[in-house]
């Protein structure tokens, strides 16, 4: 089998826009974190699928940060792209910017890093194309993603006593 050709990070770039509706919001009129997380997961999955041209599943969500609230009636623009590609997994970065439609003010509200794995129809891992960063910034992002991956793998089975505690509840 021949090696997969490398792909540019820009080839996975994905943008998605949502309107925050009352059903997406809590009693304070701000978007539920879970709704925002769902949008992030979808946008990131599209980016991972664009890179791999395979079906993907979410393996992890790291560094999810809520920076500012998103109010009902505002729009949110999600942007995602693959930051690094490994054997069968990819790290995808996502930002969420909210726009107050009445004032035009835009704010970074959420950021996250997700890992996706490419799978075949039987759930077997598939190789993904390597990433070919074109700019120094893209190379830096890929190097940082590699370091995060090493840290994730090192701590994969550490500090998991809380899982057993909740399983007994």
Task: Output the keywords.
Thiol Ester Dehydrase, Chain A; alpha+beta; 5 strands; five-stranded antiparallel beta sheet; 169 residues
Write up this protein.
With 169 residues, the chain is of the alpha+beta class. Strand 4 and strand 5 (106-119) form a beta hairpin. It contains 3 helices and 5 strands; from the N terminus they run E-H-E-E-E-E-H-H. Strands 1-3-4-5-2 form a 5-stranded antiparallel beta sheet.
List the helices and strands and how they pair.
Elements: E1 14-19, H1 33-52, E2 55-66, E3 75-85, E4 89-99, E5 106-119, H2 136-155, H3 161-167
Antiparallel strand pairs: 1-3, 2-5, 3-4, 4-5
CATH architecture: Roll
Q: Give the low-confidence spans.
A: none
Overall number of strands:
5
From the alpha-carbon coordinates, what is the Rg to the nearest angstrom? Answer: 18 Å
Report the sheet with the most strands, covering strand number, pairing sense and barrel closure. 5 strands, antiparallel
From the N-terminal CA to the C-terminal CA, the straight-line distance is 49 Å
Structural class: alpha+beta
Any idea what the shape is? globular
Count of DSSP-assigned helices? 3
Question: What is the N-to-C succession of helices and strands?
Answer: EHEEEEHH
Spatial strand arrangement across the major sheet: 1-3-4-5-2
């Amino acid at each position: 089998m021949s090696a997969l050709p490398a792909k540019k990070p820009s080839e996975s770039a994905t943008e998605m826009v949502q309107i925050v509706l009352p059903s997406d919001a809590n009693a304070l009129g701000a978007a539920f974190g879970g709704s925002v997380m769902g949008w992030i997961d979808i946008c990131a999955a599209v980016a991972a699928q664009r890179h791999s041209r395979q079906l993907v599943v979410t393996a992890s969500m790291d560094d999810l940060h809520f920076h500012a609230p998103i109010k009902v009636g505002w729009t949110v623009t999600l942007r995602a792209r693959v930051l690094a590609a490994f054997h069968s997994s990819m790290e995808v970065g996502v930002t969420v910017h909210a726009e107050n439609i009445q004032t035009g003010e835009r704010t970074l509200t959420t950021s996250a890093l997700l890992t996706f794995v490419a799978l075949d129809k039987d759930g077997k891992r598939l190789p993904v194309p390597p990433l070919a960063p074109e700019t120094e910034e893209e190379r830096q992002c890929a190097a940082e993603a590699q370091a995060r991956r090493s840290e994730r793998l090192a701590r994969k089975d550490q500090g998991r006593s809380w899982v057993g505690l909740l399983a007994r509840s």
